[in-house]
Each structure stands twice: as C-alpha cells, then as structure tokens.
Write a structure and sequence with these properties.
159 residues, six-stranded antiparallel sheet, elongated, single chain, five-stranded mixed sheet
Amino acid sequence: MVVLAAIAGAHGLKGEVRLKLFADSAESLRQHRTFVAGGRVLSLLGLREGPHGPVARFADVPDRTAAEALRGLELAVPRKALPPLGEGEIYWADLIGRAVVTPAGAPAGRVVAMANYGASDLLEVERADGRRVLVPLTGEAVPDLSDPLVIDPLWLDAG
C-alpha cells in the first residue's frame, strides 16, 4: 500500500474532510475511487480545492462527527494502482527501506522516511549507529537511484 494523503480534520458540517497531500497534487487522488484508511475502505465522492488545501467527500461520512473520527488516518492505495513512472522517476514509497552504502560499498544505513519542507525532497537515513540524518534527494548527494543507494559519507555526517 502507498499512502497518498492523510486526513487533517473535518471541514464544515456535511462530512467533508481536509487533506494533507503526499502526492504531487489533488488531481492524482482523482484517479482513485477508493482508499484504505484505518482498516476500512472509503469511497471518494468528490474532491475540491478548499481555502487551506484539498477537501474530500467520502461515502458513509454523513456529518462532521463522522469526519472528525477520521482525523489522522492515512489514505492509501495498492502500489499496482499507481500510474507507470516516466524515465528517471520514482515513488517515495519505493525508496523507504532501501539500504544505503558508501561509494566503497560499505553499509551506511537505511532510508526510513521521506520529507519535503519546500527546498527539495529529503531522504531520512538511519545510520548504522542509530542516528538519523536528512540527505537532499539531489544529483549531487544521490547521483542515481540504484539499489542500494550510494551516498558519500560527507552527506551522512550528522555533525
């Protein structure tokens, strides 16, 4: 399963929810009719842009109380439901869990999470000593997306 968004909270009184996107845009959510959230399947009825980001309407979420109960749940789809990637593209979900080695081939850690705070995509790498470090997903820091990822120790130095 690949998480595309999370429910940030209720919007209005009629069961709509605000979404925090992990996908490129709300448009990518429209490609899917159903999502798995907290062990249940939610059927998408509508999606629109709200004042603070995307707002979704799901079947079986009739009111604000039901919408509030969904707060914090992640919306996921099966990996096979995602569109094919173009040359040089990769889904974040495919990087999480990937081993990291130095250019000499020495084990250096594992990717445990991904983030983007505005400047670039970031790999969160848990080093062999247990400390975590953020590495920019740029050509300079990560020359290619091979498996395992080869990252110079300079980028893995947590200071």
